[in-house]
Amino acid sequence: MSILQTLILFSLLLSASHAAVQDFCVADLMGPQSPSGYLCKKESAVTVNDFIFSGLGVPGNTTNLIKAAVTTAFVGQLPGLNGLGISLARLDLAPGGVIPIHTHPGGSEVLIVLQGSICAGFISSANNVYFKNLNKGDSMVFPQGLLHFQVNAAKGPSIAIVSFSSPSPGLQIVDFALFGNNLPSALVEAITFLDDAQVKKLKALLGGTG
Amino acid sequence: MSILQTLILFSLLLSASHAAVQDFCVADLMGPQSPSGYLCKKESAVTVNDFIFSGLGVPGNTTNLIKAAVTTAFVGQLPGLNGLGISLARLDLAPGGVIPIHTHPGGSEVLIVLQGSICAGFISSANNVYFKNLNKGDSMVFPQGLLHFQVNAAKGPSIAIVSFSSPSPGLQIVDFALFGNNLPSALVEAITFLDDAQVKKLKALLGGTG
Amino acid sequence: MSILQTLILFSLLLSASHAAVQDFCVADLMGPQSPSGYLCKKESAVTVNDFIFSGLGVPGNTTNLIKAAVTTAFVGQLPGLNGLGISLARLDLAPGGVIPIHTHPGGSEVLIVLQGSICAGFISSANNVYFKNLNKGDSMVFPQGLLHFQVNAAKGPSIAIVSFSSPSPGLQIVDFALFGNNLPSALVEAITFLDDAQVKKLKALLGGTG
Amino acid sequence: MSILQTLILFSLLLSASHAAVQDFCVADLMGPQSPSGYLCKKESAVTVNDFIFSGLGVPGNTTNLIKAAVTTAFVGQLPGLNGLGISLARLDLAPGGVIPIHTHPGGSEVLIVLQGSICAGFISSANNVYFKNLNKGDSMVFPQGLLHFQVNAAKGPSIAIVSFSSPSPGLQIVDFALFGNNLPSALVEAITFLDDAQVKKLKALLGGTG
Amino acid sequence: MSILQTLILFSLLLSASHAAVQDFCVADLMGPQSPSGYLCKKESAVTVNDFIFSGLGVPGNTTNLIKAAVTTAFVGQLPGLNGLGISLARLDLAPGGVIPIHTHPGGSEVLIVLQGSICAGFISSANNVYFKNLNKGDSMVFPQGLLHFQVNAAKGPSIAIVSFSSPSPGLQIVDFALFGNNLPSALVEAITFLDDAQVKKLKALLGGTG
Amino acid sequence: MSILQTLILFSLLLSASHAAVQDFCVADLMGPQSPSGYLCKKESAVTVNDFIFSGLGVPGNTTNLIKAAVTTAFVGQLPGLNGLGISLARLDLAPGGVIPIHTHPGGSEVLIVLQGSICAGFISSANNVYFKNLNKGDSMVFPQGLLHFQVNAAKGPSIAIVSFSSPSPGLQIVDFALFGNNLPSALVEAITFLDDAQVKKLKALLGGTG
Q1: Does residue B35 sit in helix, strand or coil?
Q2: First-to-final CA distance of chain C
Q3: Per UniProt, where does Mn(2+) bind (chains A, B, C, D, E, F) (predicted)?
Q4: DSSP D19
Q5: Which neighbouring-strand residues pair with D110?
Q6: From CA E104, how far away is CA E177, in angstroms rounded?
Q7: Gap between the Cα atoms of E28 and E45, Å rounded
Q8: Of residues B108, D32, F38, F21, the one with CA closest to residue C37
Q9: pLDDT per residue over C8-60, tens digit each?
Q10: How many helices (H) and strands (E) does chain F have?
Q11: Between F9 and A162, residue with greater pLDDT
């Protein structure tokens, strides 16, 4: 067909797509958020690099209390995830490494072991425990919002990739929530039944005050 | 672990949470809305008071036509509700008080009677009527979008708390929609089969024109 | 119009509504569940009582470890809630009563104090603490999935009504999840940094084994 | 490639698709419903006819009180719509025909006029009226859950196609909900402020009792 | 009641509705988008015309390669659709006209034939084909995301109205995606198994390069 | 507290959780599906193995036309994913291997390269191409419903893990949809502009007829 006719047809498609909630909504990380995520960058400013992140190829620093690291590919690191209901992270567990009991308020998780062996589990609202040793290539599901954990079960380092059903699932580690801030010890004790000495010990360990 | 190591671990968590659709999206009520709710206040500006509202402790003014009052704890009064799919309201019904037939376009409702007795009901699309006298402590569900009503069934005042499956469910009272604006009487009559005199009487009562 | 004509019109409406996902989907609690909730009772078997529950009018039994009780009006008690994204519960807190640190995996919560005074709070993924003393009539929001707590702050009993953005939000109390089952003590210690003595003490208190 | 290799590749695709929530979930209209719609027919029993409906090509019978007919292509008539969040209907308006003030509890609506002229409008929760005469080819949006109406504005018959954001949006006509069942007259009067004579007149007209 | 009392009651309703996610969120097309759609125009600036579009009454220009035209009533043309999960379009098919194999990434589609006859079909993930000749008045469903097509089966022009379960479903025509841009021919050949000559021929036809 | 008191408290939690849409809804793969997924296994029959899958540890068979294999961990292989909005798959690409141009009707995708190098890309509704060579450790997002591809860019085998925002995203490969079934050649040619010889060649290659 003639260039003109081509343009006529294109203009239809373009008018439709420009008028649309775009096929994607790359996060404008400098702008405000809405309940559904960040506002979108203009489509004309979007490049392939907004959809790519290389950070999960780099081992996390495990020289810390938990001998473990969580490297996230959430919307803040990978703005093309905005609004898409998915994200990734990498877990590095040194020998003795632990991802302490935690939840992701915003989504479910599925994990696959890339190296080593990991003892992983979750607990249901009925207080039933579901846990098992996972080896290289094994996948495990952690349903939305439930308390769960991962512990290195190998002599050497273990590595896993985890995926979430949200571009920003959040990460709430119970110990940091209870002992890593200024929540008064007396209140922590009341809501956990922990002894005063235990609470003060963990507050000291995790940088909490009060 | 050392403060440095603590900070390393914290920085991971903070980078994740700052990059996230926050755990919450407190409404910036001065800003624009999106289809999913108001844009979020910066997390650094959020305080506990954004999640608290005291207005439901105050009886509503029932010296009006319906001898009743609806006091809302919607996102406009309680900005921490933004994006969370829930809200509250208080119903005060003086003797003879009525919440006229109405709908909430945005959500379902569940009611609990705190004082007195209330005759409450809803009507289904199949025109079946579901209504009953509720006493103190009774709860009742009103499914999304259906016409429903509450009438004081006690000699004294009755009070109820209602909850909605939306931070801003809306409230559309049929009488106000039909008679409280400038919708022409002839049109009101055509779409309701009401007599002209009846329509004009209610327009006068409810401040409508035309 | 004639009865016949009335029936013609009715039959249209009825055919539409019978063909519909009903205006409501009252849970058939004897049947299986789907990810979106229980299967629906036949509309012909539904009565107004499927939408009403009286259990929240009865004080919960607080003669237990936490000196508190949670009485739920979830879909299991109020089948009309099925699929509607909302539910209720009643909190009774005797003097010294506590709802220990917990989450609701399935939804957000809003609370209103009916009697007494309650110290309530939640912690964000960034480990910020949001808590305050609530008095009669005060409401507070607890965003989805975050750890939160309620402690009686009155000399006498306190009562609150809470609403959730799910017909079955779940309730996961951290202490019961960690200490009320057969999760091995060594594993509990690894994922919480608690001392062995502390873990064994709480397992004994909460009926856990291993 | 060899037939064997083709089968290897196919088997992958088939195993994936058979394991899936199918690309579609054609309603098994004889079976139970869930909150998300009817259960699905087995994919092997699905034919192209499950996705096709011819009923909207037939004018509705307008010899009735409202001189109008609503012919639905909801999930009950077009089972391929199940779970897809969309449906259609046809409006036939004879001279003087009216679709009385009504709501669709389950979804939003968009209308396009195919023949004649229609005066259509809706009312917002703020009681603002939005209405206009629509001519052939004009489209109008009716946002979710709001009271709206359509009145024939032509001397001859008018026809429109309407689409909904639900496979079963429901249809609740206020007059039928108030006057077409056994809701007691005294209660109708209390919740509408209508005069007793008016209520009894409309109950007689619409087949209501009590 | 007195005007004052009327105003008291109104002010309640207004405060609620102004505080709300509005009953509707008319798109501010000049502003940014969020994952849930455009930001909303201020309710005070909204008029009935934001909910009305006349463009579907005008035949599309079919003097082009595909002898067909797609005229959209998406959110860009009809801003009142923003956030409502529905939209419309008009298909004009001249003799020999074709809407080539395509998908709508954002939603499902239902089509009704207004004039002529159309051969329409879709293909499932299991590679099953569902297609049929549709005559005037016939409707057909095209489930979300699946490849589908429409071909004029009449000697004269055919017209259809299509509705989508999204205010901006998008439109991705496979030929334009493969041959209408600068995707290198070698890469196109690798991912389609098409011969080089075929790819170069279609790139020339559709304005592609490389 | 006494065992009795413990049981009292437990019974509350259990009654709540048994009444709930469970924390999880493990698929009963033998039973029917709903639009939201499979019906749930009884919680009493659920074991940790319902949440674990080992199949992604095994390389797929790449001795086929595309020199590639897709091994899925969708709900059919990992029933614990049911209703959770997430799944995994493994891509094996032998030298010269290709995942041909395809879509996932049900969700978005994020990919991480575990070994080798992959040229991956997608095309937007505006026909813009976004593609790049990804190395080990690189992640890339493919927004919902858009055509995309992966081609081995390494001399040796490449491996990737992909995650989807659905437990059963589907997989529609354009070549199999067009040439791997009985869609008549004349119709294929009409909706693709491909030459008859090209269509017949690919039908022969992919096992299509007609």
Answers
A1: coil
A2: 76
A3: 102, 104, 109, 148
A4: H
A5: D141, D163
A6: 13
A7: 10
A8: F21
A9: 454 444 344 334 447 899 999 999 999 999 999 998 999 999 999 999 999 99
A10: 4, 13
A11: A162
* D121, amino acid identity: G
The rounded distance, in Å, linking the Cα atoms of D75 and E87 is 19
What's chain C's length in residues?
A: 210
- Identify which of B174, C167, B111, E110 has the alpha carbon closest to the alpha carbon of residue D145: B174
Tens-digit pLDDT profile for residues E8-37: 454 444 344 334 447 899 999 999 999 999
User: Quick one: which of C59, E16, C12, A180 has its CA closest to B87?
Assistant: E16
Beta bridge partners of C44: none
In whole angstroms, what separates CA E94 from the centre of its chain?
A: 19
C-beta contacts of F45-49 below 8 A and 24+ residues apart: F47/A130, F48/A121, F48/A130, F48/A131, F48/A132, F49/A132
- Residue D52, strand partner residues: E140
Position A170: which residue type?
Answer: G
Contact C152, C92 (CB under 8 A): no
Domains (range + CATH), chain B:
33-38+45-169 (2.60.120.10), 177-206 (no CATH)
Instruction: Let me know: does F140 contact F132? Beta carbons within 8 Å.
Output: yes
CA-angle at A64, arms to A62 and A67, nearest 5°: 50
Give the per-residue pLDDT at B2: 46
User: Which one-letter DSSP state was computed for residue E175?
Assistant: H
Read off the pLDDT band of B210 (50, 70, 90): confident
For CA atoms F100, D24, F127, E194, the dihedral sign is positive
Which two structure tokens, joined as six digits, stand for A166? 């949200």
Cα-only R_g, chain A: 22
What is the tens place of the pLDDT at every residue in B72-112? Answer: 999 999 999 999 999 999 999 999 999 999 999 989 999 99
What b/e string do you get for D196-210 counting C-beta neighbours within 10 Å, with b at 16 or more? eebbbbbbeebbbee
Tokens of D107: 């979804």
- Average of pLDDT values for A161-176? 96
Taking the alpha carbons of C143, C144, C147, C148 in that order, is the dihedral positive or negative? positive
Evaluate whether E86 touches E166 at the Cβ level (below 8 Å).
yes
Residues in C touching A202 (Cβ below 8 Å): 193-194
Closest Cβ–Cβ partner in C32, C77, C206 for F39? C32
> Percentage helix, strand, coil, to 5, in chain A?
25, 30, 40
What lies within 8 Å, CB to CB, of B177 at 6+ separation is: D123, D127, D147
User: Count of B–E CB contacts within 8 Å?
Assistant: 96
Q: What is the ipTM of this complex?
A: 0.91
User: Hey, what are B55's tokens?
Assistant: 């207005």
Element (H, E) at C140: strand C139-142
Structure tokens at B59: 């009886």
Chains D and A touch (3+ CB pairs under 8 A): no
Rg value, chain D, Cα:
22
Of B104, B143, B192, the CB nearest to D101: B192
Q: By the 8 A CB rule, do A163 and C190 touch?
A: no
**Does C167 reach chain B within 8 Å, measured CB to CB?**
no
Residues D122 and D142: beta-carbon distance below 8 Å: yes
How far is Cα B17 from Cα B21, in angstroms, rounded to an integer? 8
Cβ within 8 Å, pair F180-E127: yes
Angle between helices C185-192 and C196-206 (to 10 degrees): 120
* F-chain residues near C105 (CB < 8 A): 23
Do C184 and C210 meet the contact criterion of CB atoms below 8 Å apart? yes
Burial class (CB in 10 A: 0-12, 13-18, 19+), B204: exposed
- In this structure, the dihedral spanned by the alpha carbons of residues D27, D29, D33 and D37, taken in order and rounded to 10 degrees, is 30
d(CA B192, CA D135): 23
A75/B19 CB distance under 8 A? yes
Give yes or no for a contact between C181 and C150, defined as CB atoms under 8 angstroms apart: no
CB atoms within 10 A of CB E11: 10
